[in-house]
Every structure is written in C-alpha cells, then in structure tokens.
C-alpha cells in the first residue's frame, strides 16, 4: 500500500510578543500551520498564514506548530531534512522524510517528499494496526537532527556543529494519530534566528548558560504534551560553519531557559524559549560595539571594535582585535610593500584616487596640499569625495568585509559627542561622556555611551568629564574593562603620531575627523593629560589614528 500525504490549508493565528531587557529587544513570532496525512494526492506545500492574527499560547493539537525566533541562519539537516523557510512561508522540500511508528512502538515505515508529492514506503501491516501512530520529522537516519520514537517518547539529537544551508529549516517535529491515520504534528524545539545585516563570518559560535546540543526527549499523554527535557549530558555551544553567503541563520534549540552569547558579544539576557517559537537576534555589522553614542540631536552611532589598520603588501584593512591595541613604532616602516600593519594615516588616504597627489594609506610626503581630495582645499571626506573616507571606500575584513559600512566622524559630531550630548548620570555626574583612563597599562580616553550602568564590581570612575584629568586617575585590568565594554563603553588608546616617516610617541591621542580646515589642515580630536580638544587643526600629512563608526 502506498500512503500519499495531502496537505491542505488551515491557518491559526500568529503570536507576537516583544520582550525588552536593558537595550535588547526580542520579537517572538509564533506561526501555527496544520498539515494532515491522509489518503489522496497532493503537493508538499504548507501555505503562509494570513491576517488577522490572534495570539495563542499553545499550538492546537490538531495542527503542525512552528515557533520561529528572529535571527537569521539555518543548519544543514542533510539529505533527509530539507524543510525550507523563506521568512514568509514554510514548505516541504524534496527529500524530506517522516518516520511512522505503529502502536507497538516499532518503526513501520516512512513517507518521503519527492517531486511535489509524498510517497509512502511502509509495509501493509501498518494498515491493519488499530492503535495509534507516532510520526517523527526529520526521519531518523541521515538527518543531522533526526528524531526517534521509542518506549512512549521521542528523542531528538541536536548536533553541536551545523553547516549552513540557504533557506533550510530543519525544525524537529513529532506527531501522534489514532486509527484514522491523521497525524497531528508539534514542534519540539524553539528556533533561534541570527539576523545579520552583513555577510556573516565563516564560523559562528553560539554559547549558552545551559545546554544547546545533545539528546533531548519529548514525552506526551495522548494528544497533549509534551514535556521536553535533556536525555543526558550535552554541549553548551553550537558552531555554525560557512554561513558567510547569507544573512540569516536558523538554529533549533531545546525548549527552556537560555542566555545566549554569539561570538564574543552577549546578545540575550535570560529568556524562556518555547518550542515552536522563533526568537530573533539582530546582529548588526561585524566589529560594531554595543554602545550607542549621540553625535547630533536624534542621531546615534556605534564605534568599531578597535582602531583601523592597513597592510600594504596584502592590501588588507582590518580593525584592531582589542580597543586598547596600537601598532606603535611599526608605523615608521610604512611603504607600498611593507608586510606589517600600520594604524597612523595621513588625512583622506583611503586608497581612492580622487585626484589628490597623495591618497594611498602608506603615503608620507610632507607636501600637505597634496592630500586635498580632488585637489580641492575645501573638500571634506564626504559628498563627492566620500570615498576618500577609509570606511566608505574599503571593505574591512573583520568589519563586515564590504565597502560602505563605516565612516569617520565629522568635526561637529566629535564636538557634540564630547561636549553636548545627553548621557547617563554616573558617579553623581550628570551627562557623563568621557574620562581619562588606562586599560591594561595603555593610556587613553574612555567614552561612556548615552545609556551606561557602571559594573558594580569595578572601581568607580573618577574625574568624569574633566578635560585636565590624568590618565592614571582610572586604571582598569583587562578583566575589569571587559565588564565596562559589555555595558557599551569605548576606549580610544593613545597611539602616538607620525611625521613623514618618523614615529613619535608623546602621551597624546590624535584622531582624524572627516572635516577640512583651510587649505593644508583638517580637524582632529586631541587628548592628553592636560586637555581634551575636539577642535584641533593639524597638517593633513601627519599620521593620526582613525576610529570608524557605523549607524
């Protein structure tokens, strides 16, 4: 006998719930769909629900329930688990396999989606079975996250490593049916959706305070359930390999309390993730720090994870791995074939040939007027000459690896950032914007985001907003700084300066703006033990630090 699956439309309501903790927002989207296995001929399509929607806490026992979380990226369920999700509707794909078990709890056969229809591979003994049937998806076997039925419960083994596949959503489901052979499916996992606004890194690691991978069981009582619990020890981290071609990653996780960290960034406070719901994590641009900083009324930016660097021999741009990292004396070696890194640049030296005489990042001529974009004394790193901005023109390896994602602050934005923006009260100081500090022995300027809560276990900040304070007034270890960084703080290290090919290391930080000043000068921000000055004007040929931002 051959079983054919007929899938017809029946929609249930969508549930949307917004959870906010601190500055993170999470949208919970529930999508309930129903598919019925019965005798007949049909395609393998599960249509999208249509409005109006109503919230429902528990999926109806007569339908398939999918709970979708909001970040984008999905694991590869391999040959036997190819259910796809395009952000609007879920559809069975060729190769999807559902295992069918009889009332005696033995595997009786399976149905496989081929050429738009379901084909059964079950012995005739199943038809004579008068009891309940139990269905598993993905079918046990070659599937990455295969589900098995045994002794009254289902077991799903979630792997600790996935290979990403575009549009694939191998959401584990189980179902139970009576003698009518109508099988009602339920999701037994939540889905985490990593939503990247740039090409994701080649390897994404998701860590948890609990367990994300391993064996989990789902038991039930008739048509009602369903408790999901770990069946043994498991892994607290999941690695997703080769997702860089796409911006959305989907990962099934067991129902329960989760506190997720993606890469080196904490993204989710403790959240109960319910089976059948999708939880989205909006990842933003790679290399973007969490803190938001006002740079004008109603406009905020995020700083990059470290100062900009360049390697001439490979034509490579990247951010320093840590905020406190500087190249130092290696900047004296700059040249067109230099294999090391530099992080001090003449103004507007993005590598874009605007018509300026000196536009390459390794240029070091003292003819300051040769650095004018387009040969114009009044041009900024914007408008027609925006490509002279390092972040606009270049793809930065660990900053999204695409042009146009970053930019340099203007002079007015530096002034607003340091002197005018509203910010939190910290240590009794209203509008706490900055403080001099040292991090792991490196002097620099510590910027506090618009909303900031100082970690309780870290020494309080001293001399906030005091331009004449000393760098030694606040001293933090790498561990202490990590706690402050997690709250959104930014650190601009003292990196010295370069005159022609000569590196100088005064205890000063000098950071370019995107704004010109007269024919041979441009605005920069200067800080040292005696002052914090966003109105510095300097010759464009000098090599200063560059710290990029994104919106």
Write a structural description.
It is a single chain. The protein is mainly beta and 551 residues long. It has 4 helices and 40 strands. The strands form 11 sheets. A 6-stranded mixed β-sheet has the order 1-2-4-26-16-21, with no helix packed on it. The protein has a 6-stranded antiparallel β-sheet with strand order 9-8-7-10-14-15, with no helix packed on it. A hairpin with a 2-residue loop joins strand 1 (15-21) and strand 2. The radius of gyration is 29 Å and the shape is elongated. The model is unreliable at 1-81 and 122-126 (pLDDT under 50).
Distance between the termini: 61 Å
What are the segments in which pLDDT stays under 50 over at least 5 consecutive residues?
Answer: 1-81, 122-126
Number of strand elements: 40
How much of the sequence is in beta strands? 35-45%
- Indicate the radius of gyration in whole angstroms: 29 Å
Report mean pLDDT, rounded to a whole number.
Answer: 76
* Count of DSSP-assigned helices: 4
Question: How are the strands ordered across the major sheet?
Answer: 1-2-4-26-16-21
Helix content: under 10%
The biggest sheet amounts to: 6 strands, mixed
Key attributes of the depicted protein:
551 residues; mainly beta; six-stranded mixed β-sheet; six-stranded antiparallel β-sheet; 40 strands; 38% strand; disordered N terminus
